[in-house]
């Protein structure tokens, strides 16, 4: 999976995957009896064609053979998505991991599956976008549908709008996509507003909570709990697929949110609880964005692995010394000493009232007014 490498200076550097698996191993997570580590296959062209145009797949393959060329029509060779030799195989392996997750859920051989190398949520049917070549989350959702699952809930908590996955299932009533992100007024891709609610054949199946720049833990968690659990219960999914981009962290250079590791860990716990309560625990989780590759990404995604394996890592757990020493010796970076950011995660429940002068509350209410009535829910009180 380390082959997904645009360049040594590109923000989406696979170093973050290496450091995550090293930290998970040092924490003892890979030794748990409940967890099995498997090698992701390279998705075939037929696999990829479930959600991508064959012309696009051929273009990606051709681009890898001619990395000096630019193919702007397919979003390849751009500043965000520079071409590198072997780009097709590397991208198809990330996708293959999340496809394997879907197949494991369908076969009943796993209840929770994590692919923190996945989460490529910006890619659409015929174009790369935002560091994403093949949309593995959409591929997994489609595989679940093709395998007989009647309803899939997709939850995206990346700082950036999950536009590609939403667009692929824009008119699909069997898929509810929920994206909690920084507003497109201040962040790429400039979409994901409350009035974007799905196509004419599936109104209310695209849910967007566009939060203002600067939103911190309390506002983020308040927004999540004011929208997601209510709609999830009304939709009654059979499987949850979630995208856990951690670029909303306060130290990440590619967003303007102010979240902590603790809040992102809590998001994962909340989604795990929804899966346990609504769909027998069936849950696929992926990575996504996240560009503070030493301080943040390995901690957040190790928390995700711990939660999915049934052994959440307490936030006060010390970061193992051998891992910290490795990062210092190899990359010259000092890393946090604790698995959390030592913050207070209190947030105000929507049920105690809202403040129309608060920009977070205005964003939440805009989404609730658009979506809740379509599910028989009261936007003011439910």
Automatic annotation (TrEMBL):
Ranges for domain Histone deacetylase: 10-305
* CDD domains, alphabetized: HDAC_AcuC_like
Q: Which SUPFAM superfamilies match?
A: Arginase/deacetylase (SSF52768)
Among InterPro entries, the record links this protein to: AcuC, HDACs, His_deacetylse_dom, His_deacetylse_dom_sf, Ureohydrolase_dom_sf
Listed GO biological process terms:
acetoin catabolic process; epigenetic regulation of gene expression
| Tree of life domain | Bacteria
Q: Which GO terms describe its molecular function?
A: histone deacetylase activity
Gene3D superfamilies per the record? Answer: Histone deacetylase domain (3.40.800.20)
Signal peptide from the UniProt entry: none
Record key words, sorted = Acetoin catabolism
Q: In which pathway does it act?
A: Ketone degradation; acetoin degradation
**Classification via Pfam families:** Hist_deacetyl
Instruction: Family membership, please give it.
Output: Belongs to the histone deacetylase family.
User: What name goes with this protein?
Assistant: Acetoin utilization protein AcuC
Give the originating organism: Zafaria cholistanensis
């Amino acid at each position: 999976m380390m082959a997904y490498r645009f360049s040594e200076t590109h923000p989406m550097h696979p170093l973050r995957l290496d450091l995550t698996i090293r930290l998970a191993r040092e924490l003892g997570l890979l030794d748990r009896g409940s967890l099995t580590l498997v090698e992701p296959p390279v998705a075939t062209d037929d696999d990829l064609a479930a959600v991508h145009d064959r012309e696009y797949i051929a273009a990606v393959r051709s681009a890898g053979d001619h990395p000096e060329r630019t193919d702007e029509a397919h979003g390849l060779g751009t500043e965000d998505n520079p071409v590198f030799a072997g780009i097709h195989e590397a991208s198809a392996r990330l996708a293959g991991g999340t496809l394997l997750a879907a197949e494991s859920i369908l076969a009943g051989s796993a209840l929770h599956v994590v692919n923190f190398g996945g989460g490529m949520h910006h890619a659409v049917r015929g174009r790369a976008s935002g560091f994403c070549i093949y949309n593995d989350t959409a591929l997994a959702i489609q595989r679940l549908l093709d395998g007989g699952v009647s309803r899939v809930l997709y939850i995206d908590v990346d700082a950036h709008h999950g536009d590609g996955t939403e667009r692929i299932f824009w008119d699909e009533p069997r898929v509810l996509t929920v994206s909690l992100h920084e507003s497109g007024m201040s962040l790429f891709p400039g979409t994901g507003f409350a009035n974007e609610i799905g196509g004419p054949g599936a109104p209310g199946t695209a849910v967007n909570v566009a939060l203002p720049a600067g939103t911190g833990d309390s506002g983020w968690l308040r927004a999540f709990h004011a929208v997601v659990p209510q709609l999830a219960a009304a939709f009654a999914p059979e499987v949850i697929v979630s995208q856990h981009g951690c670029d909303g962290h306060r130290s990440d250079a590619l967003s303007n949110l102010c979240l902590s590791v603790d809040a992102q860990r809590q998001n994962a716990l909340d989604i795990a609880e929804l899966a346990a309560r609504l769909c027998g625990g069936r849950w696929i989780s992926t990575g996504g964005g996240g560009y503070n590759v030493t301080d943040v990404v390995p901690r957040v995604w190790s928390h995700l692995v711990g939660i999915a394996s049934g052994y959440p890592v307490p936030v006060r757990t010390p970061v193992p010394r051998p891992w910290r020493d490795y990062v210092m010796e190899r990359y010259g970076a000092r890393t946090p000493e604790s698995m959390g950011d030592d913050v207070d995660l209190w947030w105000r429940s929507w049920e105690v009232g809202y403040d129309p002068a608060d920009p977070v509350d205005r964003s939440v209410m805009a989404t609730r007014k658009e979506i809740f009535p379509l599910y028989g829910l009261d936007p003011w009180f439910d």
